[in-house]
Design a protein that fits this description.
The chain has 685 residues and is mainly β. It is built from five helices and 24 strands. A hairpin with a 2-residue loop joins strand 20 and strand 21. The relative contact order is 0.16.
């Protein structure tokens, strides 16, 4: 009789009983054969070569200083809004990738077998059934072509309460508006999960247990209840083919995929990206390929190796510094029984694209230059050095039995001229190196340089002056005299612990694991620490720290009481930028374990310094010269809670007329809210 195979996560959902699948030759592969295969496989991430030594920097020609590009850009910068792959990190996405494996790439698992019940902080939920349509039998005996449909949605109604200082006749002192808060921009270090925005995704697939094609539709800002941000709806965001051939060996498995897809590493949660909804190592955003090998050393232990490569096309608008970027990455891990898995990771992205032409030559050099031929303040850098962003690190996922689940990981981000590196890697709330103001540069190293000096040309297409890079300089009395070209490093530690009281009582007394189908008290404790090295003196050496806890009391099948607290400290040198959030909430579900929930919550924001000095706005960090000189820099701008580096919509904290589309109204208030209310519906299937 042939030996039965041990169950392993696959990249597709097996819809027929295991006995119906062909078991041609369940042999064990010899370690020497595995070593040979491994040597061939490791060549995959060879694309992650170190960039060539940069050419000597050319001397910048003298030119008058120009206004800060972020201020000048007519908020196509909220193409800073494709910002929001938010929630997909933590949601039980249809495509999967939420296995307990450290590699947790999309190759390894399917949400259909691993996703938790909606609203749970771990623990089990009923596995989702597939919405499938059977087709003809495939060329592989016993395998049937089937259609599958998975998805996730989050729909929050959020509003903040403000106050008019001097209400006029017919005006109330109390006001209601879209929340003006510092932590709801997904691609900003200050992000927490207290008041996430809307998000939806649908994954459609067709295939067999051995081959599958997948298309994803994703987007945010639901247009029937809001205005239409054209770049918030991503359309067909992903499309790929996954292969999981049956090699005939009981202890050796190979899987791979090619196309546009996510590969995700450093997920802090048991089922998802953790309470901060981000990636310690990185999530890929490329068109490329990925392969994974799993080898069972014995009946209890498994070695896995994974690697891939790809390319990212950035938004080509002149307001974006990022350029065409290549990516290579490799990973190795070891699973000890069902309790511990450790992994080591390396990812390297680099940009070596030529300068793009900003505008065609002026057809009439002697005449006036049209603003359509030469925008007054283009902000994309020219003659920039080739750049790179690399991430290396290690993580451990620990199944602690009665004591729950724990994650602990470390990563080192190394950036060199990252201003031009597109988001081939999304890491720790940062979208690449210099994608608008959402990358590693603005999140950690300081305000990014928005251009380089060009000779003044009164009759040509470059009839403008731009801000010169001024690095390693402190803030002056008149303005921020330092900007970052994306040179620096970030060392980070991310930890999370998930605990269930009922599970502890059951397992500690010799019982079975608790899967969430009854009364329970669950707690999640989490935190992240970052140490920054920057080419801007005022950011060099600072540390960032945020931590918190979420407690849920599951009292009735349909009712859960919960409270979340977070402390956010963005800058160790400026305590006035720190703030805390406390959010009690009620969660309504149809039963103990389910896929849906409706939550009603209130958030109280507590700021070390809510407002800066009178007449000082942290959002108006404008140029030292130019048309916005009426809002000169004031050092007091830093002595209060800071808005995200890039607003995600005109209503967000920090939005003002300088970074909006023409004739679009800005934020209703320049001070952040204290009170925020939310009613949120979410579901996965």
């Amino acid at each position: 009789m042939k030996a039965a195979r041990r169950a392993r996560p696959r990249s597709v959902t097996v819809t027929k009983p295991a006995s119906a699948l062909p078991h041609e030759n369940p042999m064990r592969i010899h370690p020497i054969a595995f070593t040979s295969a491994l040597s061939l496989f490791v060549a995959l991430p060879a694309l992650a070569q170190a960039p060539a030594a940069p050419a000597p920097a050319a001397a910048d020609p003298a030119a008058p200083a120009a206004p800060d590009a972020a201020a000048a850009a007519p908020a196509e910068t909220p193409a800073q809004t494709p910002t929001a792959p938010e929630a997909t990190a933590g949601s039980a996405s249809a495509e999967g990738s939420v296995s307990a494996g450290t590699g947790t790439s999309a190759v390894t698992a399917e949400a259909a077998t691993t996703a938790p019940a909606a609203g749970s902080s771990g623990g089990g939920g009923a596995a989702p059934s597939n919405v499938s349509a059977r087709g003809n039998e495939s060329a592989i005996k016993g395998a049937t072509w089937e259609m599958e449909f998975h998805g996730y949605l989050r729909a929050p109604m959020r509003f903040g309460m403000g106050k008019r200082d001097n209400p006029l006749d017919g005006q109330s002192a109390n006001t209601f508006h879209y929340p003006v808060i510092p932590d709801d921009q997904y691609l900003n270090w200050q992000f927490t999960s207290h008041n996430k925005k809307d998000w939806a995704e649908v994954f459609l697939s067709y295939g067999t247990p051995y081959a599958k094609g997948v298309v994803a539709l994703q987007g945010f800002n639901f247009t029937d209840a809001s205005w239409n941000i054209y770049n918030a709806n991503f359309g067909i965001s992903q499309g790929y083919v996954a292969l999981t051939p049956d090699l005939g060996y009981e202890n050796f498995r190979l899987s791979g995929k090619a196309g546009a897809f996510w590969a995700r590493y450093g997920l802090a949660g048991k089922w998802d990206a953790g309470e901060y909804d981000t990636y310690l190592i990185g999530r890929t955003h490329v068109m490329g390929a990925l392969a994974r090998i799993e080898y069972d050393v014995d009946d209890a232990n498994m070695l896995w190796v994974e690697g891939g490569f790809g390319a990212k096309r950035p938004n080509p608008t002149q307001f974006n510094n990022a350029r065409f970027t290549m990516l290579g990455h490799g990973h190795v891990g070891f699973r000890f029984g069902n309790g511990i898995e450790v992994g080591a990771h390396y990812m390297h992205s680099f940009a070596k694209e030529e300068d793009r032409i900003l505008q065609p030559p002026n057809p009439n050099p002697a005449g006036t230059i049209s603003e359509y031929q030469a925008p007054n303040y283009p902000s994309a850098v020219m003659e920039a050095k080739d750049g790179s962003v690399s991430v290396m690190g290690a993580d451990a996922r620990l199944e602690l039995g009665a004591f729950g689940f724990a994650f602990l990981g470390y990563s080192h981000i190394s950036a060199k001229n990252a201003l031009v590196v597109a988001p081939a890697i999304e890491v720790l709330h940062s979208y690449g190196g210099g994608e608008f103001q959402n990358g590693v540069t603005d999140n950690y190293f300081g305000p990014s340089c928005r251009g380089v000096s060009l000779p003044a040309n009164t009759s040509g297409p470059f009839n403008t002056s731009r801000e010169s890079p001024k690095n390693a300089a402190p803030y002056s009395a008149t303005g921020p005299s330092g900007c970052s070209e994306g040179n620096g490093a970030v060392d980070s530690i991310l930890a999370q612990w998930e605990f269930s009281l009922t599970n502890f009582l059951q397992q500690s007394s010799g019982g079975q694991k608790f899967w969430g189908d009854g009364q329970d008290v669950k707690a999640t404790i989490y935190g992240m620490f970052n140490k920054v090295k920057s080419d801007v003196e005022t950011f060099d050496g600072i540390t960032k720290l945020k931590y918190g806890a979420d407690v849920q009391a599951q009292i009735l099948p349909w009712l859960t009481f919960a409270t979340r607290y977070d402390r956010v400290q963005p800058n160790s040198d400026i305590a006035n930028q720190s703030f805390s959030i406390l959010s009690p909430r009620l969660i309504f579900k149809s039963t103990w374990n389910t896929r849906e929930q409706i939550a009603i919550s209130y958030s109280r924001y507590m700021y070390n310094q809510r407002e800066c000095a009178d007449g000082v706005n942290p959002a108006f960090n404008t140029s030292e010269s130019g048309p916005y000189v009426g809002f000169p820099y004031d050092a007091k701008q830093l002595q209060c809670v800071q808005p995200p580096s890039a607003p995600s919509s005109p209503e967000a904290f920090g939005a003002h007329y300088q970074n909006l589309d023409p004739q679009t109204r800005g934020a209703p208030a320049t001070r952040p809210d204290i009170n925020v209310f939310k009613v949120e519906a979410s579901m996965w299937w």
